[in-house]
Design a protein that fits this description.
The complex is a heterodimer of chains A (188) and B (182). By secondary structure, chain A is α+β, with helices and mostly antiparallel strands. Chain A has helices spanning 8-22, 25-35, 43-49, 62-71, 73-79, 95-114, 166-175; strands at residues 54-61, 82-91, 118-125, 128-136, 141-149, 154-164. Chain B is flat. The chains are: A alpha+beta (188), B mainly alpha (182).
């Protein structure tokens, strides 16, 4: 960046403007986010199939998450150690793209397991598949990834990072009603 | 090397280049191939070289493909992006025009900084942002929760309850009367 040689003045001004725009708290948050051990970027799924296939994209972290936990005591009680919440839900129309997303899910899973993540469960029923992976050390769980490939070509990537209490997070489903995603069952 | 040249000009060096071309399945002119084959018929060293190269190629093809480690990919990425960077030209010195431009840019930096401090660019989230974030967070956490409960189901119901207890029922064990079979 900043290697325009002909006009040094413009270069300097451009660089300072870029600094002004990008050296913001949002960028600092992004940097910290990528340093979170349990954080996994799901952008590759969107890059693969394009924005049209995205039905839900969630990205909550940094000051927004802190503020949210501050105003939602229920959420804070159940998931106070959270540092980021990310999810991508895709609805794919053509089979080629669906196959590509399934391949990417397998690659993501393999890559995470090479990085020390553990697969807690893999449930395969008919044409649907659910996988849950966690990153933990002796003391705590730092990250969780849910990968769902639905039989109706609905795909889910979800990642939560921070110091996680899985038992508390499991209870959240009792209070929240999430439509769709039948592959995950009702938790009963 | 020319496919139409005299075979007398086709020595070991030309033959070995032709062997490599043939192994790489590149296009080879008919004349060149004839020269190579004629040379191989006469030259034991080149025949041996040809055999060795074919053996190496066969051995390489029999290896299963290796997946590049993440670290290696990362290093390639870093080197590639560094290679694309050009050094900044440093031949210009200070002048009033440059200083004025820098001052103007610094002013803009200050204004943007004040806007950020004011919360309008990236500071405190608005109520609407918070409401939306709360809704989104509940969707993702609810989804995660259901996945965890599914995990619990698999662990306890499908594996422990059905599979293990079913196996125990089939096992030839005489249970004491005070203990009921699972």
């Amino acid at each position: 960046m900043c290697h325009v040689n002909r006009n040094p003045t413009a270069t300097t001004v451009g660089c300072l403007l870029l600094l002004a725009l990008f050296a913001s708290p949002a960028v600092a948050q992004t940097t910290r986010l990528e340093n979170l051990p349990g954080y996994v970027d799901g952008a590759a799924f969107i890059d693969l199939v394009g924005d049209d296939a995205v039905t839900v994209e969630v990205s909550i972290h940094g000051s927004l998450l802190k503020a949210l936990l501050g105003v939602d005591p229920d959420l804070k009680a159940m998931a106070g150690g959270l540092e980021s919440i990310h999810a991508v839900i895709l609805e794919i129309q053509d089979e080629d793209s669906a196959t590509a997303v399934k391949d990417l899910m397998r690659q993501v899973e393999r890559r995470l397991m090479r990085q020390g993540w553990q697969r807690m469960v893999r449930v395969k029923e008919q044409d649907s598949e659910v996988k849950v992976l966690v990153l933990n050390d002796e003391a705590s769980i730092h990250g969780l990834v849910v990968l769902v490939a639905g039989d109706d070509n609905e795909f889910v990537f979800a990642n939560i990072a921070g110091v996680l209490d899985l038992a508390a997070i499991a209870k959240i489903g009792e209070t929240f009603d999430i439509p769709g995603l039948d592959e995950l069952g009702n938790g009963d | 090397m020319s496919g139409s040249g005299n075979s007398a000009d086709f020595g070991c060096a030309e033959a070995r280049r032709a062997i490599q071309v043939a192994l790489d399945a590149d296009l080879m002119e008919a004349g060149e191939r004839r020269h190579m084959e004629a040379h191989l018929a006469e030259c034991a060293d080149c025949r041996e070289h040809d055999s060795e190269m074919r053996a190496i190629q066969h051995a390489l093809r029999s290896l299963s493909p290796l997946e590049l480690p993440d670290q290696a990919l990362q290093e390639v990425w870093v080197r590639t992006t560094r290679a694309g960077q050009r050094p900044t030209q440093r031949t210009w010195g200070p002048s009033w025009r440059n200083l004025a431009a820098v001052a103007a840019a610094a002013l803009i930096v200050a204004v943007v900084g004040v806007m950020q401090w004011d919360g309008r660019v990236s500071g405190v989230p608005t109520d609407e942002e918070l409401r939306r974030a709360a809704s989104d967070a509940r969707v993702v956490l609810g989804l995660t929760s259901r996945a965890l409960r599914r995990t619990e189901q698999v662990a306890f119901r499908d594996v422990l309850a059905d599979e293990v207890s079913g196996a125990l029922r089939r096992a030839p064990i005489e249970w004491p009367e005070t203990v009921s079979a699972p």
